[in-house]
UniProtKB/TrEMBL annotation:
<dbReference type="GO" id="GO:0016020">
    <property type="term" value="C:membrane"/>
</dbReference>
<feature type="compositionally biased region" description="Acidic residues">
    <location>
        <begin position="352"/>
        <end position="366"/>
    </location>
</feature>
<protein>
    <recommendedName>
        <fullName>Sugar phosphate transporter domain-containing protein</fullName>
    </recommendedName>
</protein>
<feature type="transmembrane region" description="Helical">
    <location>
        <begin position="198"/>
        <end position="216"/>
    </location>
</feature>
<dbReference type="InterPro" id="IPR004853">
    <property type="entry name" value="Sugar_P_trans_dom"/>
</dbReference>
<feature type="transmembrane region" description="Helical">
    <location>
        <begin position="12"/>
        <end position="32"/>
    </location>
</feature>
<keyword id="KW-1133">Transmembrane helix</keyword>
<feature type="region of interest" description="Disordered">
    <location>
        <begin position="336"/>
        <end position="366"/>
    </location>
</feature>
<feature type="transmembrane region" description="Helical">
    <location>
        <begin position="103"/>
        <end position="124"/>
    </location>
</feature>
<keyword id="KW-0472">Membrane</keyword>
<feature type="transmembrane region" description="Helical">
    <location>
        <begin position="38"/>
        <end position="59"/>
    </location>
</feature>
<dbReference type="InterPro" id="IPR050186">
    <property type="entry name" value="TPT_transporter"/>
</dbReference>
<keyword id="KW-0812">Transmembrane</keyword>
<dbReference type="Pfam" id="PF03151">
    <property type="entry name" value="TPT"/>
</dbReference>
<feature type="transmembrane region" description="Helical">
    <location>
        <begin position="236"/>
        <end position="255"/>
    </location>
</feature>
<feature type="domain" description="Sugar phosphate transporter">
    <location>
        <begin position="15"/>
        <end position="309"/>
    </location>
</feature>
<feature type="transmembrane region" description="Helical">
    <location>
        <begin position="294"/>
        <end position="317"/>
    </location>
</feature>
Amino acid sequence: MACPVQSFCRGLRTVGLVLLYYVFSIGITFYNKWLMTGFHYPLFMTLVHLTMNFCLSALTRRAMQCWTGKPRIILSWKDYLRKVAPTALATALDIGLSNWSFLFITISLYTMTKSSAVLFILFFSVVFKLEEPNPYLILVVLLISSGLFMFTFEATQFNLEGFIMVLLASFIGGIRWTLTQVLMQKAELGLQNPIDTLYHLQPLMLIGLFPLFLYNEGLSLSTTEKLFRGTELSPVLYSVFTMSIGGMLAFGLGFSEFLLVSRTSSLTLSISGIFKEVCTLFLAAHLMGDTMSMFNGLGFAICLCGISLHVGLKTYYSKNKGPSLRKLNSKSAELEFPLLRQNGDDRRDSAAEDEDEDEEQEITLH
């Protein structure tokens, strides 16, 4: 049994990792909303973020290769175009539409609507046979759906166009995370490491989002004085600098999510995500002036109950039925990324005391 000092240190580490995750997750939400108030080119901003993510992931891969002495995986063109392209396109549309919606809706409405992604993830997980259907899923769907309806019903700051964008992004997000889970479960591809997955996804995401950017923002962006037709250097540098900060936040968010789960468990990340939604709405009300009625607040609470029930059921089934997904040995995949399912074998106290011991983790989808 771990001594009190070790337990305190592990608890302190967990709190620190959760706070780091909160900083990047909540930070990028508010930062993108703030940036969109003066820079009305969300798709171009997303392209900048994707470019930075690719560069940072490439640098990280190089550093990992120098540290471990092992070459990083590089897919063949056949596997790259046939197996990675669908995931990359879905991811690009999910992120692009989410950022685009900030032009129309408040952070509160964005946060609440984006929570509906759980419904679509469950739906596509059942379709792809990654999730076993059970009667409790119906209750989860009803709670989240009714909560979303109550939150948006006669909301004083409701915008239909932005709401449809976020809802569509959540739908595509369900496809995105399901395809990502399938992609990362294929051991023959060797993309269990999230940095390798990020590295391979970004170029195709750029290619997939670029036509939509040209159609909606290409002409307007080419004539704006904030970038390409700027008469002074300082406004151009300011625009590039502000978008670069967003790119670093986006990369930090993905890495902090992985770091949190690799050092604790996917259950910790799921529970942290629930409280993160509450923190986001609280900050949106106090910092951005978002308002909602008592009826809307009740809808948000019901939605959180649905998400909490989903997390609890995942934990119960993983402990009683064991993992149903293929496991990977930690020697062949030194970094693993949780996606939807909870870890079937959460870290025990004895495993925390001996971090060098080989472990097997279930690939999950968050």
